[in-house]
Amino acid sequence: MTGSAQHRAVPELSACVGSLRPWLAKAGGLSLVAGLLSLAPLAFIVLVYDRVVTSRNAETLVMLVWLMLLVYAVAEACEWAASETLREAGAVLDHRLAVRCFGLVYTQRLSSPAAGTLPLSDLHRLSSFMVTPQAVALLQLPVALCCLALIAWLSPTLCAFALGGLVLQSVLAYLNERASQAPLQEANRLASSAQRHAEEGLRAAEVVQALGMGAGMRARWAQDRMAALALQQQASEASGHIQAAARWVASNTLTLMMALGALLMIQGEWDKGRSSIFIAALLSARAMSPLLQLITGWRNVVNVRDAFARLTQALHDHPPKARTMSLPAPQGHLKVEALVAGAPAGGAPILRGVAFELHPGQILAVMGHSGSGKSTLARLLIGLWPAMQGKVRLDGVDIHSWNKAELGPFVGYVGQTVDLIEGSVAENIARFAEPDPALVEAAARAVGIHHTLTAMAQGYATPVGPNGAFLSGGQRQRVALARALYGHPRFVVLDEPNASLDEAGDHALLDTLQALRERGTTVVVVTHRPGILQVADRMLLLQEGVQQAFGTPQQVLASINQALAAQQKAGSSA
């Protein structure tokens, strides 16, 4: 696509909203019909007081009453149909973007662990706006133009006066925007900050309680929360004054319009009957009604506008991945080429110049001091983070670009932090697909947790709780390992898999790694414990993000010993 074509490209959210035109057009048409029918009482007033009262014809009055009942019924039906059409449009918008926004949240969370679920909230705000009074007011603007046209037919002078009232309402709407925009935006930012502080404190509740950090955490949360409330109050007060002024203008327009009509009649410039003065005033109030509704609910309008802008930017920053050709199941041939990488959020590279190759069935132990980049390497090997330079290839394919829905069943992964999802043990092991009892049990047996689970009252149906809170640390670790091994994957990456395991768990892990080798599974284990070297075919040593040595464990350990001996010799000679 050329640069000019990209410039002309319609943003994804705008295109999606644009696809709702059939619903919006239908709702607009129904709302227009309902709005025009809502003017029927004005015609009723003219006919009753200018015709029926004069002619004293009771039969005509009865017919007019029945006609008005019918008109009201049709108007209400149109209003209901318009409201249902708008609700359906909101549901369609949510349906078309829900999966996209859900994936966007995951993408943002991979780039920044602090990212929240704002895209989903923004989508909900947009879809919910369809059924608000403000959305209905926007559809009623054509009715306001029809009212102005009728006033102009009655009296150009009164029409000019009514237009002046509408201009004044528009000015008040602009002032409302200027007065509330900045404080509301800052209030929303501080409210989000307060929410994050609360979530962080709850997530680390044990540490907060044990170390007496509760007062400090509450103070940090309360500071942002109170500041947000103060700004919301400031915006509300400013907006409230303007809204009161807008209501005052709308209320007095009726009186002033009637007074002006009476003056025109006194001066002989009005010849359309006394009731038409009252009708013109009511038409003016009807024309102002949509604007008054928008001003009264201006905060909702501003929030929706901001949500639209945020979601548009988020969708632009994280475009959907292009569909790729389905690839055959991997065999486990891993090749890392001159890898330079860091966190997706930016910053200096964490890894520099890492390169090695593994064949199916080989086990690699990655070792190094804390902060040497081991966990970063694990995320890159599994395709979670992109590389700045170089590639991680599985069977010759860039693993970061491989469709994870297709690759996932052939990959096993346990991160440095064990993340279980609320549900049963079986659901977690089966990765929340339809559990295969035989495969679930095989994975559990492979990590030595089968007997522990069967001893529980609910067995494999035992709930793990939020983030595995109902299980012990060792049980969580083993369930995560079983999940990584579910379905006999061809490539497995384990980041500190024995961090919460006891001696028996360590032995079970070594047996599991040996079984994976025999099945031809390629395994990468990040660890501090040298016991893993018993089953490792290769060893990678990292220091401050730089590859220091790669080879068999014997070769790497020999090079380490030689380096230490050289350092000791240099120190003694000095």
State the total count of DSSP E strands.
10
- End-to-end separation: 65 Å
Structural class by SSE content: alpha/beta
Count of individual helical segments: 21
CATH homology superfamily of the largest domain: ABC transporter type 1, transmembrane domain
Using only C-alpha atoms, the radius of gyration works out to: 35 Å
- What is the total number of structural domains? 2
Main β-sheet: number of strands, strand sense, barrel status?
A: 6 strands, mixed
Q: Could you name the ranges where pLDDT drops below 50 across 5 or more consecutive residues?
A: 1-8
| CATH-defined topology of the largest domain | ABC transporter transmembrane region fold
Average pLDDT works out at 84
Taken from the alpha-carbon principal axes, the silhouette is elongated
Give me the side-by-side strand order of the main sheet: 6-7-8-3-9-10
**The CATH class of the largest domain:** Mainly Alpha
- Strand proportion, as a percent range, falls in 5-15%
CATH architecture of the largest domain: Up-down Bundle
Helix content: 55-70%
Descriptors:
single chain; 574 residues; alpha/beta; ABC transporter transmembrane region fold; Rossmann fold; 2 domains; six-stranded mixed sheet; four-stranded antiparallel sheet; 21 helices; 10% strand; elongated; disordered N terminus
Question: What does this protein look like?
Answer:
- The protein has helices at 3-8, 12-18, 21-37, 40-55, 58-111, 118-129, 133-139, 141-154, 156-203, 205-210, 214-266, 274-296, 298-317, 374-381, 404-407, 425-429, 437-446, 450-454, 473-485, 503-518, 553-573, and strands at 334-341, 351-358, 363-368, 389-394, 397-398, 411-414, 491-495, 522-526, 538-543, 546-551.
- The chain is an alpha/beta fold and 574 residues long.
- The chain has 2 domains: 10-317, ABC transporter type 1, transmembrane domain (ABC transporter transmembrane region fold, Up-down Bundle); 334-573, Rossmann fold, CATH 3.40.50.300.
- The strands form 2 sheets. It has a 6-stranded mixed β-sheet, sandwiched between helices. A 4-stranded antiparallel β-sheet has the order 2-1-4-5, covered by helices on one side.
- β4 and β5 form a beta hairpin.
- It is elongated and about 120 Å long.
- The chain starts with a helix and ends with a helix.
- The model is unreliable at 1-8 (pLDDT under 50).
